[in-house]
Specification:
The protein is mainly beta. The chain is built from one helix and eight strands. The strands form two sheets. A four-stranded antiparallel sheet has the order 1-8-4-5, with no helix packed on it.
């Protein structure tokens, strides 16, 4: 599996109570076998269930607050 590391700074505010990360389908695929993990204070990763949205050729990962983490996906 491939991965993309992201930080809190990568999130963009998309609504009053939402933040989102934006990737193109060419960067991470169409979302099949897509795993989002959040970096914990102990330095390990935990899997989280986060809403995903598709818009044209983009996949949006939605969360209520920005966080450091990574995305795992098949290439």
């Amino acid at each position: 599996m491939a991965q993309r590391i992201f930080s809190k700074k990568d999130f963009k505010k998309s609504g009053e109570k939402e933040y989102q990360l934006e990737y193109t389908i060419s960067e991470i695929g169409v979302g099949s076998n897509l795993i989002v993990e959040k970096l914990t204070e102990k330095g390990s990763y935990e899997i989280i269930q986060t809403p995903l949205r598709k818009s044209n050729d983009k996949i949006l990962i939605i969360w209520d607050t920005p966080f450091d983490g990574r995305i795992l996906f098949d290439v």
